[in-house]
Amino acid sequence: MSHLASLWTQLIAWVSTHLVEPAVVFLHIADTAGNPLEISEALLIALLQLFIIGFIFRPLETLAPAERWEERGLTRIDRLYTLLMLLGLFPLFSYLVLTPFANMLGGLGGGTDAGPAVSSGLKHWVPWFEDHPYLLFLVYYLVYDCVYYWMHRAQHAIPWWWALHSMHHSQRQMSCWTNDRGSYIDGVLQSFVLATVGLAMGVEPSEFALLGLLSELVQNLSHTNVRFGFGRIGERVLVDPKFHRLHHMVRDPERPSLHNCNFGQVLPFWDMLFGTALYGEKIRPTGVSDPMVDADNDRGLVGQQWQAARRFWGAVRRPAGWKLGEVSFGPDYAPIPSDEAEHLPARADTGPAGGAPAA
Predict the structure, then answer these.
(1) Is the confidence at residue 70, as pLDDT, over 50?
(2) Burial group, residue 103, by CB count within 10 angstroms (0-12, 13-18, 19+)
(3) 113 pLDDT tier (thresholds 50, 70, 90)
(4) Among 168, 245, 268, 316, which is least packed by CB within 10 angstroms?
(5) Is 55 exposed, middle or buried (0-12, 13-18, 19+ CB in 10 A)?
(6) Residue 339 has what DSSP assignment?
(7) How far are the Cα atoms of 223, 288, 297 from residue 172, in angstroms, in the given order?
(8) Alpha-carbon span 21 to 96, nearest angstrom
């Protein structure tokens, strides 16, 4: 293990010296972007994550699929979203936005020539955590995951936020690449909510990147098109593919509230605690019943982003877009309560875009 740790450290140093440091100097951000070694480590973790998704999760979808698809055409755009997020957008946000912002607020506590490092957040309020970094990280993660749970519920309950988040749910072929499919406006909102909480707790940018990347990996697995879970005990410890697939199920008009479940990101504990956990249901098709949102499947990345923004604007400028409740969207992007939108054409689950549960 010590040999592997040494190789990992050497690899981080090489990437920092030959890639990251020249890049931040070229961009004139060396004084604000943070420690090049931490940036290098985050990039390497992202590459490791891509390797795990592509060479472990993806083969599992072939071996034990939850749904069988004649072809995987709809999954390709999600792969593009994942590459853009892990190799570009997430590192850029963490080290070009979060770090300078934290430095401006004095939130990093890294110390300067003028004096020693100053603890902030939880370490300031509970100095005991200074000597127990692993427990501190665990507390960070519990708070982070709880905030995500409630934010996720808000994404489904507030119509203008659902207008953005619905793009993530529109995928009929949910796969190991689907986690990063989403509106970039929604992504910015999520990032600032979570980063604000992180700064309030005194999380270092490198720790925030690790929080995010660990969560991303678990979510990549939970979106994977496989029919197995973690067992009766394990499924109550970590969110597994069976648990999260129910969250992505198409709305059932006979049980219209069934899909409002399983909002947890990594820990199902919050769903169990607040009464939104659903276990034991059969595998169901994923996607949305709203034809305006389902049409995202016929668009490319730019088209999906544009249509999500139009739904957002259509909802945010109307009073109905601010009233809590599940909505669909009319032809003029007006939010319509889903239980009053029965006149809209039903989503067809046949054809190459659909799928059948595996036997």
Answers:
(1) yes
(2) middle
(3) very low
(4) 316
(5) exposed
(6) G
(7) 12, 8, 8
(8) 14
